[in-house]
Amino acid sequence: MKKVLLSLSLMLSFCAFAQDNVNFNIGEREFSYNPDTLKFYESSITLSPDEIQALFSDYQIVLISKFDKERKYHIKNSLFGTKKILLLNDDTRTFHNFFIYPTSSRSEFKEFKNGEIKSLITVYGKKNVRLKHAGGDEFEIVVK
Q1: Residue 33 pairs with which residues in a beta bridge?
Q2: What is the pLDDT of residues 82-138, one digit of tens each?
Q3: Closest C-alpha to 123, from 95, 138, 104
Q4: What residues have CB less than 8 Å from 48, skipping those under 6 apart?
Q5: 73 has which bridge partners?
Q6: What is the Cα–Cα distance from 110 to 54, expressed in whole angstroms?
Q7: What is the pLDDT of residue 106?
Q8: How many other CB atoms are there within 10 angstroms of residue 113's CB atom?
Q9: pLDDT by residue (tens digit) across 22-63?
Q10: Counting beta carbons within 10 angstroms of the beta carbon of residue 29, is it exposed (0 to 12), middle (13 to 18) or buried (19 or more)?
């Protein structure tokens, strides 16, 4: 009975994984992105930050583990400049129902037509950006 329940739970978790992922192509390669884990995959294998950097060369990668105890990450940006950031989760934490605020900071990826990659962020000037949950939990990119 335990084996049946274990296999059933594994099958359901795999189905949930497959449904949550959003697929996209870059060139001949097919990738997927999971908005709940903020991770990228190719053939169900998690991509490394270096592999992701090669795909999104215009973006600065910021790992969730680099946020401090108060869940803040500090960057520099000029008053009229823009900075493109890609948040990556290198932890076991999930980000279900988290969204980027302000909404104007949500970036769009030109190759990506279905859904959104919520990890892509554009920082405008000295405006802070938050990855925020309706329950009050948030991570903040503080611009200096």
Answers
A1: 22, 40
A2: 999 999 999 999 999 999 998 888 887 655 555 578 889 999 999 999 999 988 889
A3: 104
A4: none
A5: 141
A6: 16
A7: 86
A8: 9
A9: 888 888 999 999 999 999 999 999 999 999 999 999 999 999
A10: exposed
Q: In the numeric block, which tokens belong to residue 58?
A: 């215009």
Peptide bond into 102 cis (omega under 30): yes
Q: How many CB atoms lie within 10 A of CB 132?
A: 16
Cβ(38)–Cβ(88) under 8 Å?
Answer: yes
Residue type, 6: L
Q: How far is CA 117 from CA 24, 38, 45, 52, 104, in A?
A: 10, 8, 18, 13, 14
Name the nearest CA neighbour of 47 among 5, 86, 4: 86
| Alpha carbons 113 and 123: distance in angstroms, whole number | 22
- What's the longest Cα–Cα distance across the chain? 62
Alpha-carbon gap, residue 32 to 35, rounded angstroms:
10
**Which of 46, 12, 38 has the alpha carbon at shortest distance from 117?**
38
> Which tokens belong to 95?
């980000």
